[in-house]
């Protein structure tokens, strides 16, 4: 046999697969040797390397052998274009999903590190960037069932907009609703990237915010709101109209609802 052919072992080594894979593809009729010698040995040509590379790629993308065989049995330029275009669409979809997953992971790492560094119960001033939010109004009671239903409705709204955020859902508490006996929620929001924010998105401007963290879940929300309001009054700070309630550490990093780390923040307007 002339040396411009490769044995099964040589071709397998070049393509980075096992000989068994080549035998299997031959049996399935999707990739056969260029020549079979009188001794029954299979021989492959260098011109088959590109074909095998494409078949391997299709298999890695989850294309079933039967679909590949249908193409190989009825191969044509148009058939190849159709096959490649369908796979390209799937690849683009997977890339988009992976990019979102990467952003989600980055945001989770950032938020978790924030939680690790936080000092519970201490009021501080933090600088926040512009935040673009999808906001849902809420006028129901402050009980778990009603709030859960409203959050579900908010998620459905974001889904209809084809928006998926790496940030957990936050809540807004009007300063006007805060009393010694309780508080009320007025809105739920999801922070989204500026690049994908729809027209209905609301922008919370960058600026200085008074912030307090609490590691007892939602137990002390009202108390911490009052604590910040007193702090602002004592220091002569004018504040925005709403508190922002964000979960920083949840079930993925703490055990139990009552151990969540929750951040309360409110925009500082100016010094009085």
From TrEMBL:
Instruction: Give yes or no: UniProt keyword DNA-binding.
Output: yes
The protein's matches in Gene3D superfamilies, at most eight in alphabetical order, are given as: 1.10.1660.10, Regulatory factor, effector binding domain
What residue stretches are annotated with the HTH merR-type domain?
5-74
Taxonomically, the superkingdom here is Bacteria
In alphabetical order, the GO MF annotations are: DNA binding; DNA-binding transcription factor activity
Ordered alphabetically, the record's keywords are: DNA-binding
Could you identify this protein by its name?
MerR family transcriptional regulator
Species of the source: Candidatus Fimisoma avicola
